[in-house]
Amino acid sequence: RSLLDIEKLLNLPARRYKQGATSYKTQMLQYEVNPGRGLVYFYENQEKLKPLSRFEANNRLPIVTQQHNALLEKIGVRQNQVIFKETSTILIQSAPGPNVQSQEKTKPVVDGFITYAIRSIDGIMVEDSSVKIKSRSSDRIETMDLVWPHFQFTPQLKTFELKDQAELKNVITEKVKSIAQGDKVNVRMAVVLRPVEAGGRTYFAPALKVGVKMGNGQEGVIFYADLTKQEIKERTEEDTPASLQNVIQKIILGHQNDS
After folding, report:
1. Among 197, 215, 213, which residue's Cα sits nearest to residue 205?
2. Per-residue pLDDT tens for 22-78?
3. CA separation (Å) from 252 to 111, 153, 246?
4. Helices (DSSP H) in the chain: which residue ranges?
5. In the chain, what is the greatest distance between 2 CA atoms, to the nearest angstrom?
6. What's CA 162's distance to the chain center, in Å?
7. 73, 67 in Cβ contact below 8 A?
8. Apex 171 CA angle, 214 and 216, nearest 5
9. Over the stretch 224-255, which tens digit does the pLDDT of each residue have?
């Protein structure tokens, strides 16, 4: 929640910065924090470190995986809020330019290790909430990119009365028609908890995430359809807590009744 927290977490020497500062940056080192939005970013320039052979990297992978998992635990990334997590190697390979006679590529080497985790709560995806940790070697963190805000429903929600199936279908159908413009499309949907930014903080609201894949080769479109009947505005100064379990149960029961 502060620059000092980042320094303690990664065993960095304390730096000098103004009281209340949220970022520190030099040519070789950068880190910043935004508690309201649950954002933490860290980067240390380690370009001088040589890449590893694939053999060396495969031997170090279990060690790095343990180190990254331990770091996630220190940060407060709970295992019961992780729907996907994987640690893998980053391969790089160079090839000559078009004007070079030899077209031989170099052997692939490992530029580092990366752990990527995606967040969910009670099995429902928390949109735009994830963490990436990258190491160039088995004992040094090069990059940490964390988006993991304290979970709270948007204070705008005074009731969790949900749209019925017909109402929700009409809202989505009209939106898809306007996107498709008469062309054939492929539509996929999932229940998610979408972020709502307000007052410098990130809150969440239950919604359907709708992906529209165009059949004509054009870029697809993704949009949200809120599950609650109440309109969700983007900004509010109110602060009313809500029960996660309450809304999850209503979502599940609603879908069971509709089916």
Report:
1. 197
2. 999 999 999 999 999 999 999 999 888 888 899 999 999 999 999 999 999 999 898
3. 44, 17, 10
4. 3-9, 54-75, 165-180, 244-258
5. 69
6. 26
7. no
8. 10
9. 999 999 888 765 554 444 445 555 555 555 55
Which single residue is written with the structure tokens 């070697």?
137
Residues 6 or more apart whose CB falls under 8 angstroms from that of 15 comprise 3, 7, 24
Return the number of other C-beta atoms located less than 10 Å from residue 137's C-beta. 17
Q: How many residues does the chain have?
A: 259
Taken in order 201, 249, 85, 72, the sign of the CA dihedral is positive
